[in-house]
Write a structure and sequence with these properties.
This protein is α/β, with parallel strands linked by helices. The chain folds into two domains: 8-238, P-loop containing nucleotide triphosphate hydrolases (Rossmann fold), CATH 3.40.50.300; 247-486, Class I glutamine amidotransferase (GATase) domain (Rossmann fold, 3-Layer(aba) Sandwich), CATH 3.40.50.880. It has a six-stranded parallel beta sheet, sandwiched between helices.
Length: 523
């Protein structure tokens, strides 16, 4: 039955994965927000290792956090009621309304996607949003025509029907076969579903769009659905896109003597790669993703990112021969940084007595005197802190968020950050926050060159980022760069949403969408 709330709904569905649904949803959210409309995003189910913590401490997909920013509102778990975080090729952690619900094998999960509890979570979250906002922009997942999953789908057409939404269908011309994408998708959906499609978008066009005019005419005549436009590929878009890790491009970045050369180790289960996006945009930084020890050699700083399967990724790095490189890097005076799972890997060992991941125990790289025990309780929290290890006489403010299941004990070393909490934890060492003392986070070696932290997003702060980069520059014999450089980078990142929305407004005819939104009742 159609949804009864007053919010109008527009759904962005795609011909496949990675065709640009999340980005077009973000653009439309921004355009509607700038027009003074109270708008919110919604994606019933997301699968991603790049997540975000809401102000209330719930975990959602990174794309919905970006879309909330586009709407000018705080992110909320109702915007992404189900988040799947893969732990292996066939198993995922299931997050429901921001909290861990279960860990399930893919076959078992898909057998139960229509369970009353999951469907109820989707409907409850949508109901709450629809009662608070004028328009809900819904993002689909994968292809709108996955015939083998139709009886288990709870993110595409069931949500469209529930919200009584109009649909924009997005195809990706960059991967080729866009005519088959569009026409094949429309052929495989039902007549009732096809009638909901109010427009088609051709995304990621490269070159002269006028050369595709015949293609637009063909699609319009063949489908009898208007093509809203051909959206050119937009380069250098500084947005934290959820699943857009340009691995191949970043692996080709050349280290340079007059830059700070950063190597981020590629992990099979790497999570929250957005931790390094702001660093990559600094003009004095060359950031390379490294899949082999040779690709990381010569870096001024090596960074170990977060991981959804820390023990497996630790074994992977050891098997790839990274351990000798890391020790040689540190012995040669290089800096080594671990974020979240990467922090745990730098310690003496990681134990998994409850089988949170694969069970057992893995020996760490032994470069920090810390030990970690994985626990089932996940810590998700936004935090403010002061950096204690970057030097200087004043405390350096940091903001970020925590997403982890480990409790890490410092056997030596001083902490990296002091968290801004009202009072110390009453539980003392090893409390449920995952820190020896709830007022502190992380550990740093005596010489300050090896350190780890649970705080994601700390490099997003321009003052923190520039202070740290200048410390590396000084060691390298380069002059310090004024913080205004990093402030400009952050300002450009903040303006990227408007730049993207402007681009979409310029190249798409949104009259069909505006007409739908002006109609009475639901879309």
């Amino acid at each position: 039955m159609p949804h009864s709330a007053r919010a109008k709904a527009l759904a962005i569905l795609g011909t496949g994965s990675d065709v640009g649904k999340s980005m077009i949803t973000s653009a439309l959210c921004r355009i509607l927000h700038r027009a003074g409309i109270r708008v919110a995003p919604f994606k019933a189910q997301n699968m991603s290792l790049n997540s975000y913590v809401t102000p209330e401490g719930g975990e959602i997909g990174r794309a919905q956090a970006l879309q909330a920013e586009a709407c000018g509102i705080p992110p909320h778990v109702d915007m992404n009621p189900i988040l799947l975080k893969p732990e292996s090729d066939s198993r995922s952690q299931v997050i429901v309304q921001g909290r861990v619900f279960a860990t399930r094998e893919a076959k078992a999960y898909f057998a139960h996607t229509r369970d009353a509890e999951l469907m109820r979570a989707v409907r409850e979250s949508y109901d709450r949003l629809a009662s608070q906002y004028d328009v809900i922009v819904i993002e689909g997942a994968g292809s709108a025509a996955e015939v083998n999953l139709r009886d288990r789908d709870l993110v595409n057409w069931p949500v469209v029907t529930m919200a009584d939404a109009g649909v924009v269908l997005v195809g990706d011309i960059d991967r080729g076969g866009v005519f088959a994408q569009i026409i094949g998708t429309l052929d495989l959906i039902t007549r009732e579903e096809r009638d909901r499609v109010c427009g088609i978008v051709i995304n990621k066009f490269r070159g002269d769009a006028t050369l595709f005019a015949d293609g637009v005419r063909f699609l319009t005549e063949r489908t009898e659905i208007p093509v809203l436009g051909v959206l050119p590929f937009l380069r250098d878009l500084a947005l934290d896109q959820e699943d857009s890790l340009d691995v191949d491009i970043r692996r080709q970045i050349a280290f340079q003597p007059d830059r700070i050369n950063l190597a981020v180790l590629l992990l099979p289960h790497m999570s929250n790669f957005t931790d390094f996006n702001a660093l990559a945009e600094e003009p004095d930084v060359a950031l390379r993703y490294a899949a082999t020890p040779d690709e990381a050699a010569g870096a001024d700083v090596i960074l170990l990112p977060g991981s959804k399967s820390t023990l497996m990724d630790l074994a992977y790095l050891r098997g790839k021969g990274f351990e000798p490189l890391l020790h040689a890097h540190v012995d040669g005076g290089g800096e080594l940084v671990g974020i979240c799972g990467g922090y745990q890997m730098l310690g003496r060992y990681i134990a998994d007595p409850e089988g949170v991941e694969s069970g057992g125990r893995g020996e760490g790289f032994g470069l920090l005197q810390v030990t970690t025990v994985l626990m089932r309780d996940k810590i998700t929290e936004q935090v403010e802190a002061s950096a204690l290890h970057f030097g200087g006489s004043t405390a350096l403010p940091v903001r970020g968020y925590l997403i982890h299941v480990g409790r890490t004990h410092r056997h030596a070393h001083r902490p990296c950050f002091e968290l801004q909490r009202a009072e110390p934890s009453p539980d003392g060492p090893g409390d449920a926050t995952g820190r020896d003392d709830a007022r502190f986070d992380g550990a740093v070696s005596d010489d300050g060159l090896v350190w780890g932290t649970y705080i994601h997003g700390l490099f997003d702060e321009p003052l923190c980022r520039r202070t740290w980069l200048n410390r590396v520059r000084t060691r390298k014999g380069l002059p310090a760069v004024d913080v205004t450089c990093s402030q400009r980078v952050s300002h450009q990142r903040l303006g990227a949403l408007d730049r993207w929305a402007d681009h979409v407004e310029q190249h798409l005819d949104l009259a069909v969408i505006w007409a739908l939104l002006r109609q009475g009742g639901t879309v």
